[in-house]
User: Which sequence fits this backbone?
């Protein structure tokens, strides 16, 4: 379903993603694990047509995200690391807008919207403004929205960041269910080892832009001789804490808090 | 086309729902109208120019449109950092459509806000001299809104964060307003100022409105319309180009 060969992304001299290759089979739940700044999000952005690779090739369901971006875009749904719902619109309006952008015909769109919003337990609140939603509800809405156009691949970039254990559990149950019943391919990144351990059929550990290990949770544990996935992860990536400078987004968030607008 | 429509509708919904913001944005035009309109009125009249309120009302309406369209264009910056923009960028819709929907929405919102201020002006005592020409005046206002919504979109696509926003406010939006002849006649200005007013697109918007609403013009309504249309097309192209370059 996804095939990546010798993919790199350079920012000046900095190699955000450095010559990675991997494959994700149809119906697989594939997890990308890595410390902050390892290149997880950059890879997702390249797979999802938001960034152009510096070199290497990507095939998504047989298509090239650089040249056939509109075709590729119809085939995946994505939940970004940062919330990407419009807070000033209702849940229904957010879903509807998405359906229009993805050319889902009106009747089918509204049917699927109801079905998905019931599945993700949002139907009772469909006319509430999203700004009144809890973090978990917003996440569920984003997943429901990402599935509206019946994608073949679902990207989840740290979808459980900042959620309580109940919401996390709930979310993964849904995702696993969709994977099992509809054969949806899932590509996820997370910091929580227990989540990767629980849901992922295969895991790639990425560090400093390179893939250092790929395999099932059991294989990674065996390879490193550790009892837990967390132990295996630390053995593969080291225990040093990664430096991260505040990006433009962090400064914006601060400014937004000051201005308290939106 | 559906994509353009739904994104246009989004801008409109956001506007009509933020009542507090609508009221707040009336504050500045009303202040100009009251403080300057009535404050400078006697001086203006004594110099033989007639009613200052009549003269400045089109300027204040144009100011509202300038601020509103620029800001909602630049609000792209928020969507960009807080995510919603990404939702539209990964959708299977050509970016130029996304840009047109957004900029069109910004322009419509600005036009509505301008009409609201026009109503306030009428309440304050402003009277168009020829009611038949009011629709043409509104067309000039709409053209002005498109010009600056496109400019705002181009700027919002280029800026990275809020620091840049302050720069734009102080070094672009305010000069555009003060050099447009919104507050003073463009006749007999010192040459350097005359030059600056001539390269300010808002001058033509204000002048076109004034031609239609109070029958007074500096450049001539035909030139106003041509300049606004040309600048509008160029800025839409620049906006589309900048928007196309966004990487998130």
Assistant:
């Amino acid at each position: 379903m996804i095939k990546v060969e010798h993919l790199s992304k350079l920012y000046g001299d900095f190699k955000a993603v450095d010559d990675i290759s991997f494959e994700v089979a149809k119906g697989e739940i594939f997890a990308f694990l890595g410390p902050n700044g390892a290149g997880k999000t950059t890879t997702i952005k390249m797979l999802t047509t938001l960034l152009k690779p510096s070199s290497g090739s990507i095939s998504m369901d047989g298509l090239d995200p650089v040249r056939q971006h509109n075709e590729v875009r119809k085939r995946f749904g994505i939940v970004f690391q940062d919330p990407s719902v419009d807070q000033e619109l209702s849940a229904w309006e957010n879903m509807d807008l998405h359906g229009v952008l993805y050319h889902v015909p009106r009747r089918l769109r509204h049917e699927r919207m109801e079905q998905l919003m019931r599945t993700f337990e949002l139907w009772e609140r469909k006319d509430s403004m999203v700004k009144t939603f809890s973090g978990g509800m917003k996440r569920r809405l984003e997943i429901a929205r990402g599935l509206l156009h019946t994608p073949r691949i679902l990207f989840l970039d740290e979808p459980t960041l900042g959620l309580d254990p109940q919401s996390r559990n709930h979310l993964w149950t849904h995702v696993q269910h969709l994977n099992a019943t509809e054969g949806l391919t899932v590509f996820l990144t997370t910091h929580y080892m227990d989540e990767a351990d629980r849901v992922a059929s295969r895991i790639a550990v990425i560090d400093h832009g390179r893939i250092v290990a790929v395999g099932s949770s059991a294989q990674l544990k065996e390879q490193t001789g550790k009892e837990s996935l967390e132990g295996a992860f630390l053995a593969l990536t080291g225990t040093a804490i990664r430096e991260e400078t505040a990006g433009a987004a962090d400064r914006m968030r601060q400014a937004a808090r000051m201005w308290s607008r939106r | 086309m559906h994509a353009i429509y739904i994104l246009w509708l989004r801008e409109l919904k956001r506007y009509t729902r933020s009542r507090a913001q609508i009221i707040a944005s009336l504050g500045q035009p009303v202040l100009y109208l009251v403080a300057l309109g009535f404050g400078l009125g006697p001086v203006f009249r004594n110099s033989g120019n007639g009613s200052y309120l009549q003269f400045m009302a089109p300027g204040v309406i144009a100011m509202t449109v300038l601020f509103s369209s620029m800001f909602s264009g630049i609000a792209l910056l928020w969507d960009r950092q807080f995510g919603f923009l990404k939702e539209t960028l990964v959708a299977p819709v050509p970016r130029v459509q996304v840009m047109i929907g957004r900029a069109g929405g910004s322009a419509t919102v600005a036009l509505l806000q301008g009409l609201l201020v026009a109503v306030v002006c009428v309440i304050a005592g402003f009277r168009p001299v020829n009611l038949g020409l009011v629709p043409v005046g509104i067309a000039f206002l709409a053209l002005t809104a498109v010009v600056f919504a496109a400019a705002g979109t181009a700027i919002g696509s280029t800026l990275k964060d809020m620091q840049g926003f302050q720069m734009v406010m102080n070094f672009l939006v305010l000069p555009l307003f003060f050099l447009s002849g919104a507050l003073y006649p463009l006749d007999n200005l010192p040459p350097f100022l005359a030059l600056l007013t001539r390269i300010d697109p808002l001058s033509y918007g204000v002048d076109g409105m004034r031609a239609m609403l109070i029958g007074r013009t500096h450049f001539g309504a035909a030139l106003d319309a041509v300049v606004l249309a040309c600048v509008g097309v160029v800025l839409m192209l620049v906006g589309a180009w900048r928007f196309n370059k966004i990487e998130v």
Observations:
- The radius of gyration of chain A is 19 Å.
- Chain A touches chain B through 35 residues (CB under 8 Å).
